[in-house]
Amino acid sequence: MRVSVTFGTVVVILLVLLTACAGRAASSLHGGMTPTGVPQGTVEGQSRTIILATTTSVQDSGLLDALLPRFQEETGYVVKVIAVGTGQALELGRRGEADVLLVHAPEAEEQFMAEGYGQLRFLVATNDFVIVGPADDPAHVREASSAVDALRRIAATGATWVSRDDRSGTDLLEKRLWQEAGIDPRDQSWYITSGQGMGMTLVLADQKRAYTLSDRATFLAFRSSISLVILTAGDPALINPYHVITVNPTRFARVNARGAEAFARFLVSQVAQQVIASFGVDRYGESLFRPALVPTVTPQP
Amino acid sequence: MELFWQGFTGAIRLILSADPAFVEIVERTLFVSGLATGLAVLTGVPLGVGLAIGRFPGRRVLGVLVNTGLGLPPVVVGLVVTLLLWRSGPLGALALLYTPIAMVIVQWIVAFPVAAGITRSAIELLDPELLDALRVFGAGPVRCGWELVRATLPQVGFATAAAFGRAIAEVGASLMVGGNILGQTRILTTAIVLETSRGDFALALALGIVLLILALLVNVGIRAISPVPR
């Protein structure tokens, strides 16, 4: 009997604790505080919440953490960031599961717009891709005249190359560069695929003393923990444009069109562009993204 | 090796600093996994009792399903629940995707087979005469089940601890249905994934150590309140 009394007491205590926790979690779910201490305002239905599907680099680099508090303060919208990579972000947009996208794969984006899934599309920022590899550079990529030439040298020497192969924006560019080089690297013993995000792929390439394509922001963030160096940079083919796209509300009734448009317009506003221009200077000595300054609008097809 | 040291000191610093953002993540972790464990015990233990002593059609099939559930890959649970909770999905109108409640649901799904499986095997190991005696005294199925659970309380305590362990260690499904949103659905495991992908290995390790400490405290707590096996 004593045992069951103790057990009962414990169950009651647990339930009380859970309820207390539940109350607290619910309060942080609805109109709690953001990490910067900005009140978010109560969430009435879905209209104050925007789902942003985005490439991982803007989250991993910390750019969104610098931008979102200002946007939430200015407009009262709460942004739910789903950092999934460009391929999946576009796919979520195609299904109306996200309200607004921040992606970097121009060809795939143009197709997305042409199919009528998008409404507004603005250039937000650019940065560039770099080909990185071991400092002793066995494939002599340093002397390459272009990114395509670098890939040809790597293929010719059979030096290890790590591909993300995850349909991210970086991966799509890498596939296109191989195509331009006239090389089909699949099934080659020197071509390995990580299936992971940029950071983990850099670590893998570093461990295997391999070459890989990386966006500059992620490389800078990882520079201190890996020994890879930049070997090819500056080729116009390696420019990395980030666009914001609002999902077409006429196709999906549940899309928060107003919030999405407010967010897209915020990203190309003076305030946001200035944040982008100075982002990363304090930590890396150079800014990670170049602001777009003059937004370009792709008209609706 | 230096990283391990940094991780260890980082964990201590995190705990001592009581940084609001960190405390919030810990609280959410305990809330989500605690609630999921509570639900897993409330559903799994009766299911385990039913599988052990119940006589109903489909009992063997259900038993096999529960055993399969012990090895249920969280990412598959996450994927299926995500598709169900999509705006265009059958449960989309509930707007649960990317909320802590969605994370409770997936953790409950992966944890309740553990509670059911352990309860079932504990009761099956009891002396069958106990059940016969209960039936002779005219106890109904609910009363029988309750008495059997009481007779196996230490094992039910272990089932609770194991279910909690499965829930709090799970990351794939929570990442998918929660979205790892700062201030809303970020818990310790998803924060570890993020910091690793950001290259902040020391912070990732520190969070991992905090997670271990939490699991240890909860297990010690459950052990302290469970009666000692005779």
From TrEMBL, chain A:
Domain of life: Bacteria
Domain PBP: 43-270
Record InterPro entries: ABC-Tungstate_binding, PBP_domain
Family annotation (PANTHER family): EXTRACELLULAR TUNGSTATE BINDING PROTEIN
Name of the protein: Tungsten ABC transporter substrate-binding protein
UniProtKB/TrEMBL annotation, chain B:
Xref: InterPro entries: ABC_perm_TupB-like, MetI-like, MetI-like_sf
GO cellular component annotations of the record: plasma membrane
Membrane topology: Multi-pass membrane protein
CDD domains cross-referenced by the UniProt entry: TM_PBP2
GO BP term, example: transmembrane transport
Transmembrane segment boundaries: 30-54, 61-86, 92-116, 201-222
Keywords: Membrane, Transmembrane, Transmembrane helix, Transport
Pfam families: BPD_transp_1
Compartment annotation: Cell membrane
Organism domain of life: Bacteria
Family statement: Belongs to the binding-protein-dependent transport system permease family.
The name this protein goes by in its record: ABC transporter permease subunit
